[in-house]
Amino acid sequence: MSRRCDLTAKSPQVGHKVSHSNRKAKRRFLPNLCNVTLMSDTLGRSVRLRISANALKSVDQRGGLDAFLAKAREAELSPKAVELKRQIAKKLVPAN
After folding, report:
1. Does the predicted model carry a pTM greater than 0.85?
2. Which of 2, 4, 1, 9 is nearest to 72 (CA)?
Protein backbone atom coordinates (compact mmCIF):
# COMPACT_ATOMS: atom_id res chain seq x y z
CA MET A 1 0.00 0.00 0.00
CA SER A 2 1.48 3.33 -1.00
CA ARG A 3 2.02 6.06 1.53
CA ARG A 4 0.10 8.71 -0.39
CA CYS A 5 -2.92 10.76 0.64
CA ASP A 6 -5.98 9.96 -1.52
CA LEU A 7 -7.21 13.57 -1.51
CA THR A 8 -4.16 15.79 -1.60
CA ALA A 9 -1.67 13.26 -3.07
CA LYS A 10 0.76 14.18 -0.28
CA SER A 11 3.63 11.67 -0.30
CA PRO A 12 6.82 11.02 1.67
CA GLN A 13 9.56 13.65 1.51
CA VAL A 14 13.30 13.11 1.80
CA GLY A 15 15.59 15.07 4.06
CA HIS A 16 18.45 14.81 6.53
CA LYS A 17 18.62 13.68 10.12
CA VAL A 18 21.14 16.10 11.62
CA SER A 19 23.07 15.04 14.71
CA HIS A 20 24.47 17.30 17.40
CA SER A 21 27.86 17.16 15.66
CA ASN A 22 26.10 18.24 12.43
CA ARG A 23 26.54 14.89 10.64
CA LYS A 24 23.79 14.34 8.11
CA ALA A 25 22.08 11.03 7.38
CA LYS A 26 19.24 10.49 4.92
CA ARG A 27 15.75 10.02 6.33
CA ARG A 28 12.13 10.07 5.15
CA PHE A 29 9.35 12.31 6.41
CA LEU A 30 6.15 10.24 6.13
CA PRO A 31 2.68 11.83 5.95
CA ASN A 32 0.31 11.22 8.87
CA LEU A 33 -2.21 8.95 7.09
CA CYS A 34 -5.56 7.86 8.56
CA ASN A 35 -8.12 5.40 7.24
CA VAL A 36 -11.45 7.25 7.27
CA THR A 37 -14.96 6.82 5.90
CA LEU A 38 -16.44 10.09 4.66
CA MET A 39 -20.06 10.61 3.65
CA SER A 40 -20.82 12.14 0.28
CA ASP A 41 -24.18 13.93 0.46
CA THR A 42 -24.51 14.24 -3.32
CA LEU A 43 -23.73 10.59 -4.08
CA GLY A 44 -25.67 9.40 -1.05
CA ARG A 45 -23.03 6.90 -0.01
CA SER A 46 -19.94 6.65 2.13
CA VAL A 47 -16.44 6.64 0.66
CA ARG A 48 -13.45 4.93 2.27
CA LEU A 49 -10.25 6.95 1.88
CA ARG A 50 -6.74 6.95 3.25
CA ILE A 51 -6.02 10.63 3.81
CA SER A 52 -3.59 12.72 5.82
CA ALA A 53 -4.66 14.26 9.12
CA ASN A 54 -4.11 17.68 7.55
CA ALA A 55 -6.51 16.87 4.70
CA LEU A 56 -9.10 15.61 7.19
CA LYS A 57 -8.97 18.95 8.99
CA SER A 58 -9.39 20.73 5.64
CA VAL A 59 -12.42 18.59 4.73
CA ASP A 60 -14.06 19.48 8.06
CA GLN A 61 -13.25 23.18 7.65
CA ARG A 62 -14.73 23.38 4.14
CA GLY A 63 -17.95 21.66 5.18
CA GLY A 64 -17.61 18.06 4.04
CA LEU A 65 -16.20 15.95 1.24
CA ASP A 66 -18.38 17.41 -1.53
CA ALA A 67 -17.44 21.00 -0.66
CA PHE A 68 -13.76 20.10 -0.41
CA LEU A 69 -13.71 18.43 -3.84
CA ALA A 70 -15.74 21.23 -5.45
CA LYS A 71 -13.25 23.86 -4.30
CA ALA A 72 -10.06 21.89 -5.00
CA ARG A 73 -8.27 22.05 -8.36
CA GLU A 74 -7.85 18.77 -10.23
CA ALA A 75 -4.07 19.28 -10.46
CA GLU A 76 -3.86 19.12 -6.64
CA LEU A 77 -5.95 15.95 -6.28
CA SER A 78 -5.00 12.30 -6.57
CA PRO A 79 -6.54 10.22 -9.41
CA LYS A 80 -9.03 8.60 -7.00
CA ALA A 81 -10.19 12.01 -5.77
CA VAL A 82 -10.49 13.35 -9.34
CA GLU A 83 -12.81 10.44 -10.19
CA LEU A 84 -14.93 11.18 -7.11
CA LYS A 85 -15.08 14.86 -8.07
CA ARG A 86 -16.30 13.96 -11.58
CA GLN A 87 -18.96 11.61 -10.20
CA ILE A 88 -20.25 14.36 -7.90
CA ALA A 89 -20.25 16.94 -10.71
CA LYS A 90 -22.07 14.51 -13.01
CA LYS A 91 -24.74 13.91 -10.35
CA LEU A 92 -25.20 17.67 -9.76
CA VAL A 93 -25.66 18.66 -13.43
CA PRO A 94 -29.12 17.02 -13.95
CA ALA A 95 -30.31 18.43 -10.58
CA ASN A 96 -29.85 22.06 -11.69
Report:
1. no
2. 9
